[in-house]
Design goal:
The complex is a heterodimer. Chain A contains 13 helices and no strands. Chain A is mainly α. Chain A folds into two domains: 59 residues; 206 residues, MetI-like fold (Orthogonal Bundle). The longest helix of chain A is centred in the first third of the chain and has 40 residues. Chain A is globular and about 70 Å long. The N terminus of chain A is likely disordered. Chain B has a single domain, classed as MetI-like fold. By secondary structure, chain B is an all-alpha fold. Chain B has 13 helices and two strands, in the order ααββααααααααααα. Chain B has a two-stranded antiparallel ribbon with strand order 1-2. Classes of the chains: A mainly alpha, B mainly alpha. At the A-B interface, helix 1, helix 3, helix 4, helix 5 and helix 10 of A face helix 2, helix 4, helix 5, helix 6 and helix 7 of B. Chain B: It is found in: Cell membrane. Chain B: Keywords: Cell membrane, Membrane, Sugar transport, Transmembrane, Transmembrane helix, Transport. Chain B: It is a multi-pass membrane protein. Chain B: This is Multiple sugar transport system permease protein.
Chain lengths: 283, 321
């Protein structure tokens, strides 16, 4: 093969260069498809409120007045706060309870272990919408409609998280746990000081995804947060869009809702990419 | 604390708990003790999850099945109906309309998103420079919510919006993206979901492509296969399990379409985009017909289940040939 190689390589280099250029152009065009709408949001959000937004005109000046107005107007700050609590509290509780369960499923023998794990994983096959009505009835009977705890509680059952952490802990060497046992560490200490630090990568990944799922969720918050008390940002945005709010205001609100996601992505891009490519976290 | 007490009262162990452990000829009691201690620890660690899943997953799953057999009214009155709700669904033209809408949507959405994400992955895989930048640019919409995507694209699609302005410049009349024929409206909605979601599938495809052995492609090239032939006869067959995985995921996502419809068309025009979940939402939270809405949920579950099983069978059958 080495004898034949030189000639084609030279020819291929010229071809390869042209091919790379074509590739870059095609990808730039597809990127336009993904990024242009986002740029539009930014520009519209920063356009003066009375500026024409259709079909589209480049505004003469950009202003933050929409953002500031939206942040101070009506229920918007409350929606923002609710979204934050809904996402952040869920992340913390899901990660803690799922890690504890995954550790037990992976490392402890107890009666009914396999059946229970199987039952939890099997719930991944049931679409959340299929259980929407009974979940709502239950939360409603518990007095959870229009409350944050009513919003949060049902979403804490996250089989995906248990599954992923379980895979991770299962692949750890048994010697690690033997060593902890010999050192006389109790169950809780082993979990807290050995397991949790070691599963940090999978926890970071899950934190991102659980946050995004909750932050962007619509159907459940729509059903539970009927008045403003427990409305999340997505529900508020959807209402705002159907009301007579100006395009600038709606886009400003939309932009604000997107900023936390962008920040997370900017900080943890490598993590997100790696996790999808390795395990295929369901989105 | 409770762990220790229960262990102390273990009938097999006679000596005082303060006695240092001694090597005994019969290790059974000690092993039993360790076993039991392990089991108790395991159960305690699983307990919070067990409570959460019991209340908010398992109970609603059985609840959905049970409620679908009843007339369940807002004030909590329950009347057992048997299969009446399902018979009513079978007779309800609006239900069949929603089912048809959803199937049409899936038929448009799934090939669309697979094509775009596969194309993106293949191009990214061949790219040498700026890979990370382009990957990020293509992935970014995935971070947005369907609500946000719906709001942006409502603006883009509007009669005097930028897309129609561009089409007008080409001499094409205003296209009623979200108010025209059913195919057009569903395709427009699918486009929004593809825009929002393809980055995720693209990354899965990309991982699949990176995992392929380079030698196989080298061999194909030496055999004189062009880029297209090499993709069709080497890359794609090797990628089949990944394609299958993405196909299942995206089909299930397609069947659950709701957010974009809620924001963009409200199920219209004239129920042209009134999907299955929209039907469920209306029956449950507009008409408060909880039993009937639960029956729709059960139908959705059965569809999703059958679909994954059929696809799995189909692909396994092809593999064994």
């Amino acid at each position: 093969m080495t004898a034949v190689a030189p000639a084609p390589v030279v020819r291929r280099n010229g071809m390869e260069k042209r091919r790379q250029r074509t590739l870059t152009i095609v990808l730039a065009v597809i990127s336009l498809f993904t990024v242009a709408p986002l740029i539009a949001v930014v520009v519209l959000a920063l356009s003066p409120e009375n500026a024409p937004t259709l079909p589209y005109a480049i505004p003469k000046e950009l202003t933050f007045e929409n953002i500031i107005r939206v942040l101070n107007v009506g229920e918007f700050p409350l929606w923002l706060w609710n979204s934050f609590i809904y996402s952040a509290v869920s992340v913390v509780i899901v990660l803690l309870t799922a890690s504890m369960a995954a550790y037990a499923f992976a490392r402890k023998r107890f009666p009914g272990r396999n059946a229970l794990l199987w039952a939890i994983i099997a719930t991944l096959m049931v679409p959340v919408q299929a259980t929407l009505i009974p979940t709502f009835i239950m939360i409603s009977r518990m007095g959870g409609v229009d409350t944050l705890w009513g919003l949060i509680l049902p979403t804490l059952a996250n089989a995906q998280a248990i599954f992923l952490i379980h895979q991770f802990i299962r692949d750890m060497p048994e010697e690690l746990f033997d060593a902890a046992r010999i050192d006389g560490a109790g169950e809780w200490r082993t979990f807290w000081q050995i397991v949790l630090p070691l599963i940090r990568p999978v926890l970071a990944t899950l934190a991102i995804f659980v946050f995004l799922w909750h932050w962007n969720d619509l159907l459940w918050p729509l059903v539970v947060g009927q008045s403003d008390a427990a409305k999340t940002l997505t529900v508020g945005l959807a209402t705002l869009n159907t009301e007579t709010a100006s395009t600038s205001s709606v886009m400003a609100a939309t932009l604000i809702s997107f900023i936390p996601c962008l920040v997370i992505f900017a900080l943890l891009q490598k993590h997100i990419v790696a996790s999808i490519t390795h395990s295929g976290v369901k989105g | 604390m409770s762990v220790n007490t229960s262990l102390r009262s273990a009938p097999t162990r006679r000596e005082s708990p303060t006695t240092p452990p001694q090597p005994t000829p019969t290790p059974t009691p000690k092993r039993n003790l360790a076993r039991r201690r392990e089991a108790i620890a395991g159960i305690l660690f699983v307990l919070p999850t067990l409570v959460i899943f019991g209340l908010f997953k398992f109970l609603p799953i059985f609840g959905a099945g049970a409620m679908s057999l009843t007339e369940y009214s807002l004030n909590g009155d329950v009347e057992f109906l048997g299969a009446d709700n399902y018979a009513r669904l079978a007779r309800d033209p609006n239900f069949w309309q929603s089912l048809r809408v959803t199937l049409l949507y899936v038929v448009i959405f799934v090939p669309f998103i697979i094509a775009v994400s596969l194309a993106g992955a293949v191009l990214l895989d061949k790219l040498v420079r700026f890979t990370g930048t382009f990957r990020a640019l293509l992935f970014i919409p995935y971070l947005s919510s369907f609500v946000m995507a719906g709001i942006i694209w409502t603006w883009i699609f509007s009669t005097d919006g930028p897309l129609n302005a561009a089409l007008g410049a080409l001499g094409l009349g205003p296209v009623p993206f979200t108010s025209g024929s059913q195919w057009l409206v569903l395709a427009s909605l699918a486009l929004v979901s593809v825009w929002k979601g393809f980055g995720y599938s693209m990354l899965i495809f990309l991982a699949g492509l990176k995992a392929q052995p380079a030698e196989v492609h080298e061999a194909a090239r030496i055999d004189g296969a062009g880029a297209w032939k090499s993709f069709l006869y080497v890359t794609l067959p090797l990628l089949k399990p990944v394609v299958f995985f993405v196909l299942v995921i995206e089909t299930i996502i397609g069947f659950q379409v709701f957010d974009t419809i809620y924001v963009m068309t409200g199920g219209g025009p004239a129920r042209a985009s009134h999907s299955l979940i929209y039907f469920l939402f209306d029956e449950g939270f507009k008409f408060f017909d909880f039993g009937y809405a639960s029956a729709v949920g059960v139908v959705l579950f059965v569809i999703v289940l059958i679909l994954s099983l059929v696809q799995q069978r189909f692909f396994e059958g092809k593999d064994s040939k």
